[in-house]
Write a structure and sequence with these properties.
6 helices, mainly alpha, 106 residues
Length: 106
């Protein structure tokens, strides 16, 4: 009887770390979006959606901006998720608000 090859422990641990980092990124972006909306409500009395230019830039623009800021393996996990188009809009909103992603994300 032959058994299928087992994944290497290092590769398996790396994949788990990438998934964990992707989940942490999703959580951070969700919190960021909630803070952005609450701040808009407090300052203007209403929430503003991202402009049309933000919708046109994502998700390819976001992937390009995040490449090099977060690991490629984490970015791959994020982009494989069904929620990537929505997640891609959040860093656009953060950057449009004047936040330097290179400083904010690491």
């Amino acid at each position: 009887m032959t058994y299928p090859p087992q994944p290497e422990p290092f590769a398996e641990a790396l994949a788990e770390a990438a998934q964990t980092a992707a989940m942490a990124y999703r959580l951070m972006m969700t919190i960021n979006d909630a803070v952005r909306r609450a701040t808009q409500r407090r300052l203007t009395g209403k929430e503003e959606e991202l402009g049309e230019d933000a919708a046109k830039m994502t998700p390819g623009w976001s992937a390009g901006q995040l490449r090099g800021v977060i690991g490629d393996n984490v970015l791959a996990v994020l982009m494989d998720g069904a929620d990537w188009p929505l997640m891609a809009r959040q860093p656009v909103g953060v950057q449009q608000a004047g936040v330097d992603l290179g400083v904010f994300l690491p």
